[in-house]
């Protein structure tokens, strides 16, 4: 990948652009745009898809730099596993759910700002060091060929180092990642609301009855009539008025409550007809 596409003659002309440079200049703008969309997108699904674009472009960058192990890991582990986990979480939580602004851990915003500033300073120093030492713009991978030749190829060399020289560091990193995942779940779960006991609920009901006159018993069910038994039918009190506690607040907001007068109207008409017929019969008898 580091061989020039068009070899420059030996007359001192500027060498042509290499394949790795083509990959960088073509994919770097796409990665930057996708990263900005990931940060500023309002919908979590769009952010997750933009993150997938960044990961895939980064994998191509690894391949252009003759790093097949990182290329495969980037595709299989990060893009194929971790990103799918992000999408599953988005689907479980819901795209319309709002984030809670309450701080579960006090001071974590200040710590996050300090860590971001420290990372920015580290990035500036790293780029400045690369610019001053002339590392940026080189076509050769410094020390990569010697490291790969020691183990046979790139993958074998990495496997030998990971499972021999750096095995303790590798296992310690795995344990640290597991601890971080468990800690994240604990902090994200938050403090669960303590459920009230039956004694506490009864005490609250009696206190509400004493202070506001609220009925301490269960609320009445919806009305049951000869023509309907829908939940939108309100119950009637002995004096014929509507029991407000039997009306669902959700149905009342939607305007789906049945008018009790409409339900009683056929019965009133029937009784009126019967009364009229009775009076008519009594008049004829007289």
From TrEMBL:
It catalyses: a quinone + NADH + 5 H(+)(in) = a quinol + NAD(+) + 4 H(+)(out). The keyword Cell membrane applies. The keyword Kinase does not apply. It is a multi-pass membrane protein. The chain crosses the membrane at residues 22-41, 48-64, 70-95, 107-127, 166-188. It is an enzyme of class 7 (translocase). Its main location: membrane. Its EC number is 7.1.1.-. GO terms for molecular function: NADH dehydrogenase (ubiquinone) activity; quinone binding. It is found in: Cell membrane. NDH-1 shuttles electrons from NADH, via FMN and iron-sulfur (Fe-S) centers, to quinones in the respiratory chain. Couples the redox reaction to proton translocation (for every two electrons transferred, four hydrogen ions are translocated across the cytoplasmic membrane), and thus conserves the redox energy in a proton gradient. Belongs to the complex I subunit 6 family. This is NADH-quinone oxidoreductase subunit J. It comes from Cutibacterium avidum.
């Amino acid at each position: 990948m580091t061989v020039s596409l068009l070899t420059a003659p030996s007359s001192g002309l500027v060498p042509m652009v290499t394949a790795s440079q083509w990959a960088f200049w073509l994919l770097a703008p796409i990665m930057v745009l996708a990263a900005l969309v990931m940060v500023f997108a309002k919908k979590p699904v769009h952010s997750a898809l933009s993150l997938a674009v960044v990961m895939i472009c980064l994998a191509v960058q690894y391949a252009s730099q003759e790093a097949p192990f990182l290329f495969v890991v980037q595709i299989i582990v990060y893009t194929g596993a971790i990103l799918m986990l992000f999408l599953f979480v988005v689907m479980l939580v819901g795209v319309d759910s709002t984030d809670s602004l309450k701080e579960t851990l006090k001071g974590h915003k200040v710590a996050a700002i300090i860590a971001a500033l420290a990372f920015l300073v580290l990035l500036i120093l790293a780029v400045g060091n690369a610019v001053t030492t002339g590392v940026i713009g080189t076509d050769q991978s410094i020390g990569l060929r010697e490291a790969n030749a020691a183990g046979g190829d790139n993958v074998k060399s990495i496997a030998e180092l990971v499972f021999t020289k750096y095995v303790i560091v590798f296992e310690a990193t795995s344990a640290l990642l597991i601890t971080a995942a468990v800690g994240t779940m604990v902090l994200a779960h938050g403090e669960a609301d303590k459920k009230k006991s039956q004694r506490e609920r009864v005490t609250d009901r009696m206190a509400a009855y004493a202070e506001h006159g609220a009925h301490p018993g269960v609320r009445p069910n919806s009305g049951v009539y000869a023509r309907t038994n829908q939940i939108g039918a309100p119950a009637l009190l002995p004096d014929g008025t509507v029991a407000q506690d039997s009306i669902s607040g959700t149905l009342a907001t939607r305007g789906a409550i049945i008018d009790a007068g409409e339900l009683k109207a056929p019965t009133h008409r029937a009784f009126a007809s019967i009364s009229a017929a009775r009076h008519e019969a009594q008049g004829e008898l007289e």
